[in-house]
Amino acid sequence: MKGFVFSFEFGGFSGDQYKIYNDNLDLIIEINQQRINYEEESHKISIEEWDVFWKVVDEIDAWRWGKDYFNQYALDGTQWELVIDRKGKRRRRIFGSNDYPPNFKLLLDSINKLAKTNIIYDGDAIYDGDE
């Protein structure tokens, strides 16, 4: 397996910020903790592990997600961006601010497993303007 692109950024002003992306089969994880402490690590990811990840991407149909997801009622919070590209699929760049596509938690769980991170999903606690 080669010739694919995976990049995921997740975070907000007051929390940790993550940038996770591939360099061939390796996975690079950059974590900026509270804008104070910066860490970078790299993991060797097997072809089998990448296959499991891409299977999740296919099963949740991330290729058909919308381009942007915004919660107009939240002024601060969490922004994220996903870039995926694989042979036989079209390149996708998907961005969100305090809003998420369906099955986003499944994607995040798969990323956490691959990157050995614990990014917390707050999608169930989105402010909808009625509170």
User: How would you spell out the order of helices and strands?
Assistant: EEEEHEEEH
What's the architecture, going by CATH?
A: 2-Layer Sandwich
Q: What is the number of helical segments per DSSP (H or I, 4+ residues)? A: 2
The SS-based structural class is: alpha+beta
The CATH H-level superfamily is Mago nashi
- Radius of gyration, rounded? 15 Å
> The biggest beta sheet, please?
7 strands, mixed
Number of domains: 1
Report the principal-axis shape: globular
* Uncertain residue ranges: 125-131
| Helix percentage range | 10-25%
CATH classification, class level: Alpha Beta
SS strand fraction: 35-45%
Side by side, the strands of the main sheet go 4-3-2-1-6-7-5
Could you tell me how far the N terminus lies from the C terminus, measured between alpha carbons in angstroms? Answer: 48 Å
Quick one: how many beta strands?
Answer: 7
Mean pLDDT: 88
Q: Under CATH, the topology is which?
A: Mago nashi protein
Describe this structure in words.
The chain is an alpha+beta fold. It has one domain: Mago nashi (Mago nashi protein), CATH 3.30.1560.10. It is built from two helices and seven strands. A seven-stranded mixed β-sheet has the order 4-3-2-1-6-7-5, with no helix packed on it. It is globular.
Key structural traits:
alpha+beta, Mago nashi protein, globular, 131 residues, single chain
